[in-house]
Amino acid sequence: MFCVSIAQITVGFFAIDQLKLEPAEALAAAGHALTSVGIGLVCAQLIVRKLSWSPLRMIFLGALVSSVGFGAVAFATTSLVLDVCFFIAAAGMGWVFPASAALASNAVESHQQGAAAGAIGAAQGLGVVIGPLARTLLYEVNISIPYFLAASLLLGVCLWLLKPPA
Q1: What's the CA gap between 129 and 131, in Å, rounded?
Q2: What is the value of pTM for the model shown?
Q3: Class of domain 2-161 as given by CATH
Q4: CA 134 to chain centroid
Q5: How far apart are CA 17 and CA 156, in angstroms?
Q6: Contact (CB, 8 A) for 123 and 103
Q7: d(CA 162, CA 36)
Q8: What string of pLDDT tens digits covers the 166 residues of the chain?
Q9: How far apart are CA 65 and CA 92, in angstroms?
Q10: Other CB atoms closer than 10 Å to residue 20's CB: what's the count?
Q11: Burial bucket for residue 152 (CB in 10 Å: 0-12, 13-18, 19+)
Q12: Could you tell me the residue ranges of all domains in the chain?
């Protein structure tokens, strides 16, 4: 959620600063990019239902796909490219979110699942709080840094897993 909140909070400013759009056009571009996120999440869920991936494989591949999407945002020069980048990032996160919830649920006994779900929710909430704060600081340095940070963190998840599980 840290990575997602960075992208959601910066997209309008990014459209003004990077794409050189007027505020009204930037608002429309941000709306289209965020719509692409919704479509990407739905598509990811439709695809994953057809696959027999383990949660660790979903996290690895989802983080990898999402890192490509977030990293590519830094190079976006048009609204269409921004939309595609957000779609890719969201599609990857559409595999990471349910897989991380499944891992947490599977890691505890049945009487502990409520607490595990609460911990996942709290961690996501913390990401939504810290992401915009970090974004504000990093965006002032360079408008691409928040997106590179998101990509780097997701690649770190991939490196932590070292290889896609079977």
Answers
A1: 6
A2: 0.85
A3: mainly alpha
A4: 15
A5: 28
A6: no
A7: 30
A8: 888 888 888 899 899 999 999 999 999 999 999 999 999 999 998 998 888 888 999 999 999 999 999 999 999 999 999 999 999 999 999 999 888 877 777 777 878 777 877 777 777 777 777 767 777 777 778 888 889 999 999 999 999 987 655 5
A9: 5
A10: 10
A11: middle
A12: 2-161
HEC readout, the chain: CHHHHHHHHHHHHHHHHCCCCCHHHHHHHHHHHHHHHHHHHHHHHHHHCCCCCCHHHHHHHHHHHHHHHHHHHCCCCCHHHHHHHHHHHHHHHHHHHHHHHHHHHHCCCHHHHHHHHHHHHHHHHHHHHHHHHHHHHHHHHCCCHHHHHHHHHHHHHHHHHCCCCC
